[in-house]
Amino acid sequence: YDLVPIKFPQTHRGDTILAHKYALMRSLRYADKIISISYSTKKDAVKYFKISEEKIRVIHLGVDEDYKLLPENEIKKIKQKYNLNYPFILYVGTLEPRKNIPTLLKALYKLKKQGLPHKLVITGKKGWKYK
Predict the structure, then answer these.
(1) CA angle, corner 86, sides to 83 and 87, nearest 5?
(2) Where are the domains of the chain?
(3) Confidence at residue 35, expressed as pLDDT on a 0 to 100 scale
(4) Confidence bin at 128 (pLDDT 50/70/90)
(5) Cα→Cα distances 131→23, 52, 96, 102, 108, Å
(6) Which of 7, 55, 85, 102 has its CA 20 to 30 A from that of 121?
C-alpha cells in the first residue's frame, strides 16, 4: 500500500517496521511486476529498494459506492445528529503521530486568523501512541 513504516520509522513500532520491511523485500525480489497506488509510493520503492521504475505500474485506488455524495436531506440529518450547525473542516483518520494532526491545527489556526469561520471536526479510532 505505502512505505510509511520504512520512510518514517519513528511513527511505527519496531516489530511493525521489521515485518513490513521483510515482507516487502521478499515480495519485491520475486515479483515480475509491481502495482503501486501512487506515483509517490512508486518513487519511494525505487529509492528505498533500488527497483527499476519500469517494473512498477501505478494504478490508483478506486472509490467504493459507500463514498458517493449523499442527498442533501441525508446530509442535513447527519449534521443535526452531531449538532454541526456551523461550517466545518472534517478530518477522518486514526489518531496517531504519523497523521500529523498538530500541523493540521497550525494550518487551521492561520486560517482562523485570516477570518475563516470553520471549526474542526475530528473523527476516527484511537491509534498507536494515542494521548
Answers:
(1) 130
(2) 4-58, 65-123
(3) 94
(4) confident
(5) 30, 41, 8, 13, 21
(6) 7
